Amino acid sequence: MRKEKRTKQNKKLKIFEIIVGIILLAIVLLIGYKKAPDYLTREVKDKTNLVINNNNVTAKMKQDVYIDEKGIIYLAKEDVQNYFDKYIYYNEETSTLVTTSDTKIATMQKDKKNIDINDSKVSIAGTVIEKEGKIYIPISEIGQSVYNVEVNYIKSTDRVIIDSLDRELKKADCSKNVAVRFKEKNFSKKLAKVKKGEKIVVISEEEKWSKVRTENGIVGYIKTNAIANLTYVRENMSEPKQIQGKVNLVWDYYSEFAKAPNRQNEQMQGVNVVSPSFFSLAKGSNGEIIDNAKQDGNNYVEWAHNNGYKVWPMFSNNSLLTTTENILNDETKRRNMIDNIVKLAEEYNVDGINVDFENMNQEDKNVYSRFIIELAPRLKDIGKTITVDVTAPDGSETWSLCFDRDTLADVSDYIVFMAYDQYGTGGNKVGTTAGYNWVENNINKFLGQEAVKKEKIILGIPLYTRLWKESGDKITSKVVNMKNVEETIPEGTQRKWDEDLKQDYVEYEENNATYKMWIEDKKSIKEKINLAKKYELAGIAFWEKDRETENFWEFVNEEYNK
After folding, report:
1. Are 63 and 79 in contact (CB under 8 A)?
2. For the segment 178-207, what is each residue's pLDDT rounded down to a tens digit?
3. Is residue 29 in some structural domain?
4. Quick check: 53 and 169 in contact, CB under 8 A?
5. In whole angstroms, what is the distance from residue 66 CA to residue 145 CA?
6. Domain annotation covers residue 39
7. Phi-psi sector, 148: left (phi>0), alpha (psi -120 to 50), beta
């Protein structure tokens, strides 16, 4: 009996021990599971790692880094597009690659070592190559000259390190031997050792742990108390905008058959940018530009600068649909047009260019974007601002659907929403030139469906309206400048305020015809200025000078800046 009892007790003890063992094992596995993210770095093995601005992006790359026998480092076009130039372009027919940065545009042909960077010809050791059906760019050859990055290869760890030269860089000494860990924890995996006195790049600092990069390109964490002699190698660098604060622009239009206006005795309170119509395309142009500035333009620029105005002349395509189509779709003509406008901007010492291309094919939307993508860095390289005029979304093919507003806004300094001609001569309906609700709805489209940032949008406001005439089935209209509204409306005509449009409306009969006008005056313009303020847009612009009433600029200055 005793033996039997002892046997049962032993069995129970073994079962208990097994249960305790299972529980302990579960605890160990649970702790290991929780600690695994701190220990498993998931680093990419057996290939060259790429570290861009202290981030190891190897696992996210489309293709592997390629290093040829001469040590030239290549990245696939898809990866350059992802990390350096989302608008990189390759023409398979001509084997030509075009890549841009903020201030540089490089044109390269496959297997040719001579390339164009802005307006200079450069010879490089590497070329654009094709490898296993993919296009590769010699990043080590063009990194600094095009993208403003420094490219280094660390052979000991098989790492390519790319640093942006306009970003902050801090270096320090290690004050003691220290382990570099994957995460900010003692338990985390050890990635490397740094000896006392070795240099490190300091990425970020916290009280206990700091993120660093070792001399051989390993990114991880060390104890903050191991950092000594912190030095700023360079600060964050960014180009200041020409206009500090909000833009207040006025277009100063004159035809290509006239001279630049003489403004010597004029001042416009609050205005900080003027846009005279200096430059335009002629019918049949191959990229040549009509220069309508000349000596009068020089005098105009001098007057503007003496009064503190920036000068962003308008460059118009004169609504020449076929000429515009031919230039935009031909790389040589497009480049010729870019070269010409850049030369003119330098010649007249202007501060920027306002591109005003209208009446274009919807099919040419992408090549128009290419034109601005390629023009922008050329202008920015010489310190010029680029603005692009666009219409309201969702209109006709040649008026509205020909603009990729998101791309245009992204690569330019500003886009100008020409918020007028809601009802214009092209339609058969009478209506306002720029109703408040229509303007606001389209601002929301810019911010929403068009994905344009508010700080990129300048709101264009009309200084004119239309007088509509209905005679039987016939509808006609004529433009009435803001300053001429009072003399156009018969005396005693009753005005009616439209709360949706935020304009006065008049209607009267004369000579068996009905006349209608939605009035643009200081009241209606005040409401549009308030929209620019409400949505925190980059600024306002007025079409055009000399259509305004007396003391108008003082009024705008007070309303916009209060």
Report:
1. yes
2. 999 999 999 899 999 999 999 999 999 999
3. no
4. no
5. 20
6. no
7. left
> 418 with 543, same domain?
yes
Q: Which domain holds residue 380?
A: 247-462+520-561
DSSP one-letter string for 211-223: EEEETTS-EEEEE
Amino acid identity, position 144: Q
3-state secondary structure of 230: strand
Tokens 């994957």 label which residue? Answer: 182
Q: How confident is the model at residue 80, as a pLDDT?
A: 98
CATH number for 201: 2.30.30.40
Instruction: Report the alpha-carbon distance of residue 247 to residue 274 in Å, rounded.
Output: 10
What is the pTM assigned to this prediction?
Answer: 0.91
- Same domain? For 345 and 426 the reply is yes
Nearest to 168 by CA among 207, 144, 213, 201: 201
Do 443 and 418 share a structural domain?
yes
Alpha carbons 326 and 420: distance in angstroms, whole number: 28
Nearest one of 109, 135, 133, 111 to 121, comparing CA atoms: 109
pLDDT per residue over 345-377, tens digit each? 999 999 999 999 999 999 999 999 999 999 999
359's CB contacts (< 8 A; 6+ apart) are 317, 319, 320, 321, 324, 398, 399
CA 362 to chain centre: 22
Predicted local distance difference test score (pLDDT) of residue 102: 96
Nearest to 198 by CA among 221, 226, 224, 223: 226
Cβ-count burial 200-221 (b if 16+ within 10 Å, e if not): bbbbeeeeebbbbbbbebbbbb
Among 113, 142, 162, give the residue marking a domain's end.
162
pLDDT at 24: 63
Are 268 and 316 members of one domain?
yes
Residue 79 and residue 196 in one domain: no
Q: Which residue has the higher pLDDT, 27 or 488?
A: 488
Residues 125 and 259 in one domain: no
Looking at the fold, whether 93 and 200 belong to one and the same domain comes out as no
Question: Are residues 239 and 248 in contact, defined by beta-carbon separation less than 8 angstroms?
Answer: no
Mean pLDDT of the region 96-116: 97
Residue 75 lies in a domain: yes
- Enumerate residues 6+ apart whose C-beta is below 8 A from 487: none
In a domain, 281, yes or no: yes
CA count, 13 A, side-chain hemisphere, 484: 11
| 8 Å CB contact between 281 and 303 | no
Q: Residue 400, by phi and psi: left (phi above 0), alpha (psi -120 to 50) or beta?
A: alpha
39, amino acid identity: Y
Q: What is the pLDDT of residue 12?
A: 61
Question: How far is 156 from 59, CA to CA, in rounded Å?
Answer: 20
Last residue of a domain, one of 162, 188, 203: 162
Query: Which pLDDT belongs to residue 33?
Result: 43
Residue 123: phi, psi to the nearest 5? -105, 130
Q: Bridge-partner residues for 231, per DSSP?
A: 171
**Residue 252 main-chain phi, psi, to 5 deg:** -120, 85
- For residues 432-441, average pLDDT: 98
Is 107 strand, coil or helix? Answer: strand
Query: Tell me, what CATH number does 431's domain have?
Result: 3.20.20.80
C-beta separation of 470 from 430 below 8 A: yes
Count structural domains, the chain: 3
One domain, residues 265 and 330: yes
